[in-house]
User: What shape does this take?
Amino acid sequence: MVLNENNGIPVQSMYQLGFITKEQYMSAKNQLANKQDGEDFTLSYEDMLQRTFYLVPSSENYVKNENGSYSQIKNPEYDTDGLMNKSIPLKVTGIIRPKEDAKNATINTVVAYTNLLTTRVIDRANESAIVQAQKNTPEINVLNGVRFSAATDDEKIQDTKTYLLNLSDEEKANMYQLILYYDGKSQNQEINEDTNSFDMNALSKLSMNPQSGISGILENYLNDSPNTTTLLAIYNDYIGGKSLEKNLASFGAVSYESPSSISIYADSFENKDAIGKEIEKYNNTVGEDSKISYTDYVALMTSSLTTIINGISYVLIAFVAVSLFVSSIMIGIITYISVMERTKEIGILRALGASKKNISQLFNAETFIIGIFSGIIGIGITLLLLIPINNVIQTVSKIEDLSAVLPLESAGVLILISIIITVIGGLIPSRSAAKKDPVEALRTE
Assistant: This one.
């Protein structure tokens, strides 16, 4: 038994497991719907451990008819003793609950069981009479005695007749009502119109035993000239669409060699992506019928969130791009002012033999050094601000592992961007300084 962190289980599960009565469950359900405080149901560990439950496999819910077909037990409560003999007794061997500091419960059901029970249920189903009968006649549906797939309309009509004749008296009566509906006539109209074609003795029996009487009328209807359109409609609605695989699945039959699905749990996003790539590699080497179709549930759950985050990122990138553009212009203006203030110094350097290239390199080196130090200072301030920011994030979200980080690679890229922007911003002023006439520069005060 799996409890929640408060040592409790849902009231619906308590009712399904037989711990409370139907009246208690309905009362608690109404109280919850009306937002009222309900009654507390207390169970001791000893009471849980002493309970015995009974699991009836799906294959045991069918009985064999006289005509060789199988029918599902409609009222299991009337055959309790018979079902108990076919059931698997289960005992509670342990009670668990999540730890108080657990973020997520790994078991989301009230009842948990090991692979031993799964294997036993599969073996019981595979060895059952109905599964063996279905496997021995793979083309015939053991539930109605007709073929799974009819090729022509004539075969469908014949299968429909076989299906209707194999029904019980109660089912025949219900199907006859349906036939009257398909024919667009009421029951009284049908009986009055066909009185001459039926034995009057059958109608007298109908008044005493309606189900048995209508059953006989249905048989006469099928032996006469039934409406083929009606029979085809019944085939499409009640007979067609069945298959060997669907029947075996409803009986609980499972093949160990060919599982229908496999659940893979990866412990990281990197491993999840690696698993997906391996499946894609396999699919590229096999034919269409042998390809594996898989669903990445994590990707489905995070796709919407990823779209939102990408949209926010694009907006932030746009703001950053604008700020970088403005920054480069400001750097260019500051460098140009520096050139204007040092015009005489430029003239002296040119008079001493410095070339235009040397003057340009001087200012480029200056902007390069400014870019390095500005990038390092920016990274340092960011690292200091991350400390209070992470405290706020963890306090608001109540998630200790959630924090903002600045990877070393990203820090290096940001410093490189800072250098590039400052150098680009200083290119035009440095060229302007290199083009100044030395004579005019020396005259500048």
Q: What stands out?
A: The chain has three domains: 11-136, 153-241, 324-443. Residues 169 and 215 are 6 Å apart (CA to CA). Strands lie at 52-55, 62-64, 70-72, 88-91.
